[in-house]
Design brief:
It is a multi-pass membrane protein. Its main location: membrane. By secondary structure, the protein is mainly alpha-helical. Helix content is 68%, strand content 2%. Strand 1 and strand 2 form a beta hairpin. About 9% of the residues have low confidence.
Length: 573
């Protein structure tokens, strides 16, 4: 009698949020292949947000039902931290993708390049602009990246963790290089992110090999058992921990693996920067927590001092370098580095037991990720709105006096800056208080003291932006700004990447590009070339308003979200 082969049990219902996002991304690829060019953009937007809404509903229902467990042959763990992270990722991705849909600011076209050309203004690109060709495939790319992030935070197997790392990273490498304006800067950002990301992935894979050599298994629970039994060579174990830490800390943006952050954040399309700043941070930090707590909990006396040192150095470098920046996007990039250090303070103070300290550490970190992510999306949404005749005006001196001309938008940006600084009545204050309490109770009061001092340093450059908005006088603009002031009113804010002043790479646009640039573009600034606020779509303003509301509400009433984060603070082993 032939024995029957039993099929593997994959728990499809439990994995449904992952499958929905992956399915939506695959359908998006089919849309690119099937629908005519002019119909793709609307179809992709509708499909993407439908996927996100359904995924959010299914995730919340599964979380409320308590459907937790190790799934997919032990490679994926669906537990409360995974559900919390999935919900946060979907919500933050939805806010970020609202910025992807913005077309009014660019004269009826998106912020993404119409063609993969190195130099704007070529004949082929001019024809593509006139035909309204757009990179609508950015939506399935974003969904693929989101799928990788969701798999990343729930991976219980080191090989699956590596695959998830690549799935979340590769679409981001592509999207970073697709900016319509500042084309060469954008492509440089994509290339730099790819090369440094590949190097970090190599370290990560090396660490995976070392840990497999030590434990004989890729599962985190199996590695934890091997560590407890002291089964292998300690050098293999330490080398594996170091390699994996490099890969994960690179994604977190911690020092000394942060060098990609300012260049990539500055060069990438601002909508993509918002997606990276919010969602990638959530995925990387939660994956780091899972690996350290579940797989390497027995080595906590080795990795806790390491995380404490990295946290201090990251806070110091990010804060000090942010002070010197005169570009808002670059300042926000170093702000991201600084906040990575604040998050790592809670990681350093964590306990691997299921007591109150672990609940405090993991829960406060999860709350911090949400507070920071929402404020980041809102801040970058405001950056997309502040414009001159060449497009986004990200120089800080160009924002002088903006609070007097556009008080509501300046007030929104000020809320985000105050939240980043950890000022009371914002969610950032509660988040920072939580991670400091975790580090203090975890036995690292010196990290808290350093963190408080560096918080004061960080508050300086955040408040400097607020002072510039309300109290500084606008400075006369020269160079490109002066040339832009002579441009006709119709060319105020259309397709800026097709002209030499907008891109800065010496490209010369032709007649076709000029025709498209001047057709129906909304005037964003005055005839004097003054920096102002572009006429954006409801989606972009909606992202700003939603971010402000969440930041203020969870600063005044943090209880519901904080309780939810604390309840989600125990990893399933």
């Amino acid at each position: 009698m032939v024995d029957m082969i039993e099929p593997p049990s994959l728990e499809y219902l439990r994995l449904l949020p992952l499958l929905l996002v992956f399915g939506g991304a695959c359908l998006g690829v089919l849309v690119e292949a099937v629908l005519p060019r002019r119909s793709r953009w609307g179809a992709q937007v509708g499909l993407t947000f439908l996927t996100l809404v359904v995924t959010a509903v299914v995730t919340v229902l599964g979380w409320r039902a308590g459907d937790v467990g190790v799934s997919a042959l032990g490679s994926v763990t669906v537990d409360h931290p995974a559900y919390f992270s999935w919900t946060a990722l979907v919500v933050l991705a939805a806010l970020s993708l609202l910025l992807f849909t913005e077309r009014r600011l660019n004269g009826g076209v998106s912020a993404f390049a119409p063609q993969a050309a190195a130099v704007p203004g070529s004949v082929d690109e001019e024809l593509a602009i006139r035909a309204r060709t757009e990179h609508s495939e950015v939506y399935p790319l974003a969904l693929f990246s989101l799928f990788g992030m969701m798999l990343f935070v729930a991976s219980n197997d080191l090989l699956i963790l590596f695959v998830a790392l690549e799935i979340l990273s590769l679409p981001l490498y592509l999207m970073c290089a697709l900016a319509r304006r500042r084309r060469l800067l954008s492509q440089e950002a994509g290339l730099k992110y790819f090369l440094l990301g590949a190097l970090a992935s190599a370290f990560f894979l090396y660490g995976v090999a070392m840990l497999f050599g030590y434990a004989g298994t890729f599962t985190l629970a199996g590695i934890d058992q091997a560590v407890a039994a002291g089964a292998g060579s300690e050098w293999l174990l330490l080398a594996g921990m170091a390699g994996i830490s490099v890969g994960l800390l690179f994604k977190v943006g911690a020092v000394p693996f942060h060098s990609w952050t300012p260049d990539v954040y500055t060069g990438a399309p601002t909508a993509v920067t918002a997606l990276m700043a919010a969602c990638t941070k959530v995925a990387a930090v939660v994956a780091l927590l899972r690996v350290l707590y579940v797989g390497l909990g027995g080595l906590r006396w080795d990795w806790q001092p390491l995380m404490a040192a990295v946290a201090v150095v990251t806070m110091a470098v990010g804060s000090l370098l942010a002070i010197t920046q005169d570009d808002v996007k670059r300042m926000l990039a170093y702000s991201s580095v600084t906040h990575a250090g604040f998050m790592l303070t809670a990681v350093a103070g964590a306990s691997t037991g299921e007591g109150a300290r672990q609940l405090s550490s993991v829960g406060s970190t999860l709350f911090y990720l949400v507070a920071y992510g929402v404020a980041s999306v809102g801040a970058f949404a405001v950056v997309t709105l502040v414009r001159d005749r060449n497009g986004e005006a990200s120089r800080l001196q160009d924002w002088a006096g903006l609070g007097r001309r556009h008080p509501w938008l300046a007030a929104a940006f000020s809320v985000f800056m105050l939240s980043f600084a950890g000022i009371p009545l914002t969610s950032g204050f509660i988040a920072k208080l939580g991670v400091f309490e975790s580090a203090w109770s975890g036995g690292y009061p010196w990290v808290v003291v350093v963190g408080v001092v560096l918080s004061l340093v960080a508050a300086y450059f955040y408040l400097r932006v607020v002072v510039t908005l309300y109290f500084a006088d606008p400075q006369p603009r020269s160079g490109q700004g002066g040339q832009a002031a002579q441009a006709p009113a119709g060319a105020a804010d259309a397709t800026p990447a097709t002209g030499p002043a907008a891109d800065g790479d010496g490209a010369r646009g032709g007649a076709l590009a000029t025709e498209v640039r001047t057709a129906g573009a909304p005037a964003a600034v005055s005839s004097a070339g003054e920096v102002g606020v572009g006429r954006a779509s409801v989606a972009t303003y909606g992202a700003v308003v939603a971010a402000v509301v969440v930041t203020v509400v969870f600063g005044l009433l943090p209880g519901p979200l904080l309780d939810l984060a604390l309840q989600a603070g125990v990893f399933l082993r």
